[in-house]
């Protein structure tokens, strides 16, 4: 589905203006993606209406293609639909978890505790489920794995008493996460129980835990928990499966809340703070902006760590060496395989990849690896000043790196091409350069 959305966006490539048919076509593809991701029909219709209106009425800003303009509108309207993440100040607080049996509450309790502990806080999980056999052991084990404090009582049968005692026993912790018994359905006695636990622990936030595969059942559940304890946020679990979690948006809408966390696997580290862009990309089946920006950030941080003394301003000084080029290539490599990186850029990546022959990116990567081997075979002096590399050294380097003379020449050419570009930058004013660096 993502692919067909991509292809209808790609048909807009080169068009400066959209007509109503173009918009209709794109909106239809978005509707199809969202409905198959379990987003509620009425939410999808509201979204389509606003996209249509804006796409037809708003002028694309100068220099923007029709395709980018539509992408921007779709993205903005999607952000409005999914909302920001639930506010979670990094300070002492009590969080109560609610949800049906098997939705992932116990797992999420340990995951969230792990997450808070990584933020430097001291969390404790209180397990009040006396209903499901093995609930105590499961929670205890997961908390051990997460290396966080745990309170439970395998012999007690009063969840409200456990909650009260658990809060007292873990009084030194900053974050109290109270796990509750699962419900097969919304039975009255279990609702009464969670209401009492809520009174006893007096949570700062009550989160509804939903399986990503939940469809329209989300509505009734959200309504019930909203009336009984009040819902401040939603946790969507099992996003590592095929389900995209669109049903949870119904719960968000119903409780007028937002999404707090996403569960993406069975281990305690498989948790992400909700962030709109990644979730939107997932819903639409398009590239994952969040993943891309995180990778870029990580790559930049690593490169900075590795080359604390490497100053990009040096480029201004007229010394663009092969070493500088090597560092640039390292930084790119850390972002992952090139084709994956490109594929994560919504629209652009996908569309471009579809048009390239299958092996085009491999060749490029293959060449990058060869370049690296070549540079490893060069001396420091040659890396600092590649102009000293003559014919016989070129041959030696080719042999030493297991490549060929042609590839060594290509590397040297690429370097002088980049050097020329850098030299052009030097002709610019200081202000221009700084602006470019910030981009
Ligand atoms: P609870 O009954 O609401 O406490 O749900 P549990 O935490 O016991 O989870 C039910 C099942 O779902 C367990 O087998 C978990 O391992 C699994 N589970 C929970 N969260 C995730 C997730 O994010 N991904 C995957 N793949 N499995 C999960
Ligand atoms: Mg449980």
Topology diagram in text:
Blueprint: H1 2-10, H2 20-36, H3 41-57, H4 66-82, E1 93-98, H5 105-118, E2 123-127, H6 135-146, E3 149-151, H7 159-169, E4 175-179, H8 188-201, E5 205-211, H9 217-228, E6 233-237, H10 248-255, E7 259-263, E8 271-273, H11 276-284, H12 289-306, H13 322-334, H14 338-343, H15 348-355, H16 360-376, H17 380-384, H18 391-400, H19 405-426, H20 430-438
Parallel strand pairs: 1-4, 1-5, 2-3, 2-4, 5-6, 6-7
Antiparallel strand pairs: 7-8
Helix pairs in contact: 1-2, 2-3, 3-4, 4-11, 5-6, 7-8, 9-10, 12-13, 18-19
Magnesium ion (MG) binds next to helix 5.
Describe this structure as you would to a colleague.
- With 439 residues, the protein is α/β, with parallel strands linked by helices.
- It folds into three domains: 81 residues, Up-down Bundle (Four Helix Bundle (Hemerythrin (Met), subunit A)), CATH 1.20.120.140; 192 residues, Rossmann fold (3-Layer(aba) Sandwich), CATH 3.40.50.300; 150 residues, 434 Repressor (Amino-terminal Domain) (Orthogonal Bundle), CATH 1.10.260.30.
- 56% of the residues lie in helices and 9% in strands.
- It has 20 helices and eight strands.
- It has an eight-stranded mixed β-sheet, with helices on both faces.
- Helix 1 packs antiparallel against helix 2 and helix 7 packs parallel to helix 8.
- 38% of the residues are buried.
- About 7% of the residues have low confidence.
